[in-house]
Amino acid sequence: MLNQLNKDIWMDEHVPAVLKIGNNQYSIGLAYRGNVIRKKKKKSYHIVFQKPYSVNGAHEIHLNAEYNDISLSRNKLSLDFFDQIGVIAPHSKHVLLYINGFCKGIYLELESFDQHLLQKRNLPEGSIIYATNYYANFSLLSPKRKLKTDLLEGYTLKYGEEDNLASLEELIIMTNTLKNDEFEEKIEKVLNVEQYLTWLAGVVCTQNFDGFIHNYALYLNSETNTFEITPWDYDGTWGRDLHGKLLEYDFVPITGYNTLTGRLLHFGHFKKKYMDILSSILDNEFTVETQADIVSDLFEWLKPYIHLDPFLNRTSEALDEEKDVICHFIQKRNSFLKEQLIKLQNEQVYG
């Protein structure tokens, strides 16, 4: 099985395998997943259930190595944080993975954001579109500032009909071509603006540099016929980048960056809504007092298993040190964002 995968680590085709969870056994398809992580010793996996078709309400799951994250936890902490502030996010849990009897270490098991997740959450049916690369910036221009040849470049339909991609094209066209009064009038008919602004506040707090033009999925709610947005791949957060290097607390601006965000925050009432949402989060969820116990509990659960991971050269004390890094980041980032909020409020009044 692993020999087949290692013949070409970039192959996305799944190979047959058997997954054992407790006393239960399942036929699955197994493949490597991710980009940079495929070159590492500890790789991430994508699992598709074949027989039975679904397990615990899921047809597919992701096993993330979290190799560059000292804490192994930033992704989970971020997704749980979005859940706390009211943004749909995949659930996750740490597992110990064995392959052919050999321990491969601690992995983060992640829900796939798909129709099965919608069913589990009792959410309306709807198309799901993944932002699969940095071209997913809601713009007519690529990150290299060249005109795109395809408005849907950077997006992949995960679930739904191809025709539903036209709704995303409409959103991108509106964002880039409508005059201010038309945009203000029509945008809430295609985008759940309050939900988007809450997501924006979450990205800004956790400081995911890639989160504005990548690392998200769009869900077209069939009841409201508006897009909602969800986070994905948030290991480069809470004071470190995706390579595990420390990031200064003021690296990402309070307004984030992408074309849609810039357009929304041009309007005073949307900007005020964003400021109110962010202010509430800074007072309640994004605080050391709220997050410290969450981090501690998670790390205490991980500590007994750290020494079993053959790819990790760290001790339980490293987790204690990393808790200090995360808490220091929250404190500094919170203060920075509150200062920036005051500036935005002054712009609102005097601008």
UniProtKB/TrEMBL annotation:
InterPro entries: Spore_coat_CotH_CotH2/3/7. It holds the Pfam family CotH. Keywords: Capsid protein, Virion. This is Spore coat protein.
